[in-house]
């Protein structure tokens, strides 16, 4: 099944997975990536994705969680469908701390199914693979579900290779974004084990030989310099390209930079939603990952050092 995905967040977001602190503490070389990835998190509940006016005049509001059907708990859309064989239904709905019951006919319940979800999906950029531990990191920041307005609790997650089909350029005050396509029946690239403040992390399950890039040293924070660097990302299909940037500020483990590459500026207007996680390289060493853009100045971006990202701290 072909699935069109837009980044669900208001700014550029990255994926992060949970690893033990020792898993990355000893990493000396990482493979810089830059591929666009589709991200899917399976949630342990069913929620309403859009406001829905019911025939009885009541509303299902965006973010409401459906907990039970006729007194039986439901944790997925599929399980909810299995409860809709009764003629008359009572649906238990939780909104924040309030719980209410809604009576619907079977037909009315089936009509609301298109507005229900049990997963969060979107796109981001793969940051690195550790060739020794076979673990990866992406996004550089936490995934926030745009409907729930919170980092979602999830039972499992997957990442897939995504191909860029269209770009909406950024302009001052209007963040652009990538529109990507993934094949949901494709082989998944890896699992998602954690969604943390520094990104998503998990186990890499694909063949490392498919990467054309070699492992490189991680640059120490004190060695990062103001000036020229490169950003790896995909803006056409699944091809990763290197684009010129200038690092303009270094503060603790966070950076600011300006996009100077003419091709990237012409194609994207600067930084896009979905570009978070793009690796930054300086003098052949791994510096960090893009995390955010400046909405009023989309040629300007923010990044986290890879050393800090590896700490996986919230």
TrEMBL record:
Keywords: Signal. Residues 93-314 form the Peptidase S55 domain. It comes from the Bacteria. Gene3D superfamilies: 2.30.42.10. Pfam families: Peptidase_S55. Residues 1-25 form the signal peptide. This is Peptidase.
């Amino acid at each position: 099944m072909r699935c069109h995905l837009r980044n669900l967040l208001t700014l550029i977001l990255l994926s992060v997975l949970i690893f033990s602190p020792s898993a990355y503490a000893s990493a000396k070389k990482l493979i810089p990536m830059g591929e666009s990835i589709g991200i899917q998190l399976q949630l342990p509940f069913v929620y309403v994705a859009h406001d829905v006016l019911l025939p009885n005049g009541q509303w299902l509001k965006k973010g409401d969680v459906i907990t039970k059907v006729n007194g039986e708990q439901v944790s997925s859309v599929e399980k909810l469908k299995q409860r809709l064989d009764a003629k008359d239904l009572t649906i238990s709905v939780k909104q924040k701390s309030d719980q209410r019951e809604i009576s619907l006919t079977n037909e009315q319940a089936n009509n609301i199914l298109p507005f229900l979800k049990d997963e969060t999906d979107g796109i981001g950029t793969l940051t690195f693979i550790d060739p020794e531990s076979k673990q990866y990191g992406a996004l550089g920041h936490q995934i926030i579900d745009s409907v729930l307005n919170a980092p979602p609790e999830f039972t499992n997650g997957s990442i897939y290779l995504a191909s860029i089909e269209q770009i909406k350029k950024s302009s001052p005050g209007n963040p652009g974004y990538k529109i990507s396509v993934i094949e949901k029946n494709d082989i998944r690239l890896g699992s998602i084990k954690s969604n943390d403040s520094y990104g998503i992390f998990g186990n890499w399950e694909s063949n490392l030989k498919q990467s054309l890039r070699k492992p490189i040293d991680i640059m120490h924070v004190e060695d990062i310099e103001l000036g020229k660097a490169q950003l790896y990302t995909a803006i056409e299909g699944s091809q990763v390209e290197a684009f010129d940037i200038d690092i303009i500020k270094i503060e603790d483990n966070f950076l600011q930079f300006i996009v100077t590459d003419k091709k990237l500026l012409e194609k994207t207007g600067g930084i896009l939603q979905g570009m978070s996680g793009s690796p930054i390289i300086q003098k052949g060493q791994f510096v960090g990952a893009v995390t955010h853009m400046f909405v009023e100045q989309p040629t300007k971006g923010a990044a986290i050092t890879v050393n800090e990202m590896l700490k996986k701290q919230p």
